[in-house]
Amino acid sequence: MAENEYVPLFETRQVKGRILFRWNAVIRIPFIHRLSQRFGKELPGIDIFVCTADPLLEPPSMVVNTVLSMMAYDYPPEKLSVYLSDDGGSNLTFYAMLEAANFSKTWLPFCKKFKVEPMSPEAYFRTASEPLNVQEWPSVKRLYEEMKMRIETTTKLNQIPEHIYKQHKGFREWNFVTSKRDHQTILQILIDGRDTNAVDIEGNPLPTLVYLAREKRPQYHHHFKAGAMNALIRISSKISNGPIILNVDCDMYSNNSESIKYSLCVFMDEEKGDEFGYVQFPQSFDNLTKNDIYGCSFRVIQKLEVHGLDANGGPCFIGTGCFHRREALCGKKYEKNFRFDLKKLNNTKVNERASLLEETCKVLASCTFEHNTTWGKEMGLIYGFPAEDIVTGLSVQCRRWKSMFLDPERDGFLGVAPITLLQLLVQHKRWTEGHLQVFLSKYCPLLYGYKKIPLKLRLAYCAYNLWAANCLATLYYVVVPCLCLLKGITLFPKISSPWVLPFAYVAFSHHAYSLGEFLWCGGTFLGWCNDQRMWLFKRTTSYLFASFETILKLLGYSQLAFVITTKVADEDISKRYDQEMIEFGVASPMFDILATLAILNLLGSFGAIKKVTMHADKGFKVLDQFGLQILLCLVLVTINLPVYQALFFRMDKGKMPSSVTYKSIIFALLACTLAVY
Questions:
Q1: Catalytic annotation on 389?
Q2: Do 347 and 472 reside in the same domain of the chain?
Q3: What angle do CA 573, 255, 132 make, to 5 degrees?
Q4: Catalytic-labelled residue, pool 251, 389, 407, 411
Q5: 249 annotated as belonging to a binding site for a ligand
Q6: Which of 113, 456, 464, 641 has its CA 20 to 30 A from that of 487?
């Protein structure tokens, strides 16, 4: 091979697909050994953003594990900076970060010496057995457990001990904090990677570690996660200014020590690297049950659909596990002939002392800094949507940047999936509401992306943007055939009619293909059944509420809100989750709808069975006339079996509340009565 011959840092392989966002689907294969051979240690700086918002819903001990896993990447530590945005403004989280900074001096050399994966201490010690020839293993585990106990004890007491309070100047900031929604900017550089004294127990340099709680005042909108990310972009530009930014949620720890190098194979490719604005990794979870009781794995979407998006313009930005080019995220348009030298972009040295940097950078996270600027409009993450990630990724692509989806054999990141049904439904309500609001705004992919991104990519965006609209068709098939069956109205062809064949073919082929896809992507038959059940539950509740909420917002009757999914659960809930029992447990309008629809179809099935059995001479005629409607009701009854168990048979705390049971029975009987008479 000639000395100057171009050798790509990644390879693209074509796979076949059947629908729009699977046409020409591709798989990307990075070659990190070529990256090391070509660039050695001349690698760009990486700024990692971790966002948390509530120490009660997102425990500091979990946040610490995510931060430590990010600090432990197989990457030059002097070129690695980790930033935590604490939108809860909690001194408990700050204390946990101090503990993390201290423990990192032991954890990082341990990870590098023994090539530890995953790099989260909690995940590693939970899954790994003690090696025979590793003397440090017991002592490191003991240090971690002691740190974890201190953090959890402090969190439980909700108070920082006096002797700890005096150990760091940062705690004095909370003397001026009124509440988590009313406080000044708190910025603390806990580890200054430029300081020659910032070393681990073996004398190796440590990554930079920064804590930020941006200013909040009741009279100013803080724009939730998008506002936090934009504040981090500005703060980091003055401290480390890494040309590549990785953002993760606080529960999404690093599971692959080479993830940074995988992404750099894309960004640093000499021929095509300059075209890419961001590289998205899959959103995977480490707490899924064997049969994925809540259908949280996104199995088919991530194994099939996203690869099709990749081939037709690039995947969406999904809010976590994404590497961004700083210029692209900050509003720069892609220019075909412009070359980015990532090695030199962050070579500017910052000479200010850490204490001076802390003071001078605070203004960048103030409430008023963004006034009369393009932040939240053209720069940074876009404001005004619950799904700020989707609209931000779309805007980056419309500035002519491409994106790429990387799915290495070992998951890059692992997070925490919802372990109760209500958590899942509320989470999907926010996602679908955000998607629908994007579709109904000026950022509608069909219009905003016109002549900017390929038509196939615009249409693929719309398939996700219109998730919420699916509630209408689903509710029709769940409600109307059942009521018409009780009334004696035929909706489908007779069983004896040849016109029944198209219905049978479509139903069978669709579900057979769906099952085949699910199994091919590594799922189980019961997992597919659970996925179909959650599909029904989400479309009759989450999508319905998302549609109403969006309409109310457009009419000015509702304000934008951001609901945080809790990452904690008591022992009983976790036990039932491990046993794959669906958790209800609390009263909710969503459960009222689920239970009412379940009972409605149960009554419809009873009515159909009564017609068939009590009139033996007309039984075959009834089956012939209403066969498809009866089958549909029976299928829905089968899908809703866990709901009936929760309503009438379960005695544990995860059962359906009595108030939901009574209301659903009354609503269902009322609907049946009105339908019949």
A1: yes
A2: no
A3: 95
A4: 389
A5: yes
A6: 641
Asked whether 253 and 121 are in contact (CB, 8 A), the reply is no
Catalytic site includes residue 292: no
Look at residue 410 and tell me if it is in a domain.
yes
Read off the pLDDT band of 24 (50, 70, 90).
confident
Q: What is the separation of C-alpha 222 from the centre of its chain, rounded to a whole number of angstroms? A: 21
Residue 63 CA to residue 497 CA, distance in Å, equals: 61
Indicate whether 1 pLDDT > 50: no
Question: Same structural domain for residues 600 and 483?
Answer: yes
Cβ atoms of residues 643 and 595 within 8 Å? yes
Closest CA to 324 of 76, 664, 46: 46
- Annotated catalytic residue within 87, 192, 274, 411: 87
The secondary structure element, H or E, covering residue 51 is strand 46-52
Residue type, 492: F
Assigned domain for 446 exists = no
225 is in an annotated binding site: yes
Q: Are 608 and 633 in contact (CB under 8 A)?
A: yes
Contact 340, 327 (CB under 8 A): yes
In degrees and rounded to multiples of 5, residue 241 shows phi and psi of 55, 45
Segments in 568-651 forming alpha helices (H): 571-578, 589-614, 619-639, 641-644
Are residues 244 and 79 in contact, defined by beta-carbon separation less than 8 angstroms? no
Assigned domain for 207 exists: yes
- What confidence tens digit (pLDDT) does each residue in 371-430 have? 999 999 999 999 999 999 999 999 999 999 999 999 999 999 999 999 999 999 999 999
- CA pseudo-torsion sign 216, 220, 224, 230: negative
